[in-house]
Amino acid sequence: MTFQQETIFERFLAPIFENFLIDREALLAYSRRIDWEAGSARFRRPGLVIPAYYQSQNFHNVKGGYLNVDAAVTYDAIIQYLLPPNETWVRQELIGAIQCKPRRILDLGIGTGTNALMLKQAFPDSEVVGVDLSPYMLVAAEDKAQTADLDIEFVHAKAEATGFPDHCFDLITASLLFHETPPDITQQILQECYRLLTVGGEVLILDGNQEALRQMPWLMDLFEEPYIRPYAEADLVEWMSAAGFGAVRTHPVWLVNQLTRGVKSISHSAFGFPSRVDGIMAVSY
Ligand SMILES: C[S@@+](CC[C@H](N)C(=O)[O-])C[C@H]1O[C@@H](n2cnc3c(N)ncnc32)[C@H](O)[C@@H]1O
């Protein structure tokens, strides 16, 4: 894997961000307020092997990617400018597309937790669990949840092998994760989603619009994103269908993003009757 040496961000945007868009003092204060090493030590799961595809790459020009305090400290300050026209509107598309009344929600690649917080606010009676491979991102997410007084569980795990039991979530979400995972891992994550969902459960994926990325390849040169090209060349609808999901639909979100939804379709008993799983009557789509 070769690293992109000079991204558009490095050549043109970094000085704009550094001089005009990022409040350095606020970020420094945030960085100092939290004991990142102690916090991350609480989350680190002994025995969890961090995969090579994750730790061998730089993401967003941050050396060492997400296994790094800087990535967690700067993430929110930068991402707000990368989800046009408005971060909250883009994220709200995912929340608004949820059709079930979830009892247990899993957010994969939770990052600093913005989507997980919105999920908990939208479904206050549900349990929300967030998974991430970076203990530093989990520290940032936990801090945000505590500040907002929202009860969310944080787990240090791989999205492709979470270790949760079968059928224990009725909604699984992932935002801005799949353009950062190699295609074989993305397909494993979708299989894991299928395993974890109750029958009738929903999966919702918010990420870069694959067609738009193919039409405007310069978008892929904005940041150091080692796996974005194979992501753009693929078709998430096909991958979700191959993982077993039914009623898979995708639509653009403000042109540069897309929201893809699938359902773990009803399973039928040997006599052709719909089955009940975890007390939820599965619905046919
Ligand atoms: C671009 S950030 C997205 C964060 C958040 N979902 C959001 O919408 O802002 C991608 C996140 O996925 C995490 N991640 C990447 N690969 C992962 C994997 N295989 N398992 C768990 N987390 C992963 C990264 O550590 C990072 O926090």
Describe this structure in words.
By secondary structure, the protein is of the alpha/beta class. It has one domain (8-270): 3-Layer(aba) Sandwich (Rossmann fold), CATH 3.40.50. 39% of the residues lie in helices and 19% in strands. The chain contains twelve helices and nine strands. The chain has helices at residues 8-21, 24-33, 36-43, 52-55, 69-79, 87-96, 114-122, 135-147, 183-196, 210-215, 228-233, 236-242; strands at 104-108, 127-132, 153-156, 169-175, 197-208, 246-253, 257-263, 276-277, 280-281. Strands 3-2-1-4-5-7-6 form a seven-stranded mixed beta sheet, with helices on both faces. Strands 8-9 form a two-stranded antiparallel sheet. A hairpin with a 2-residue loop joins strand 8 and strand 9. Helix 5 packs across helix 8 (135-147). The longest helix is centred in the N-terminal third of the chain and has 14 residues, at 8-21. Bound molecules: S-adenosylmethionine (SAM). The site of S-adenosylmethionine has 22 residues, from helix 7 and strand 2.
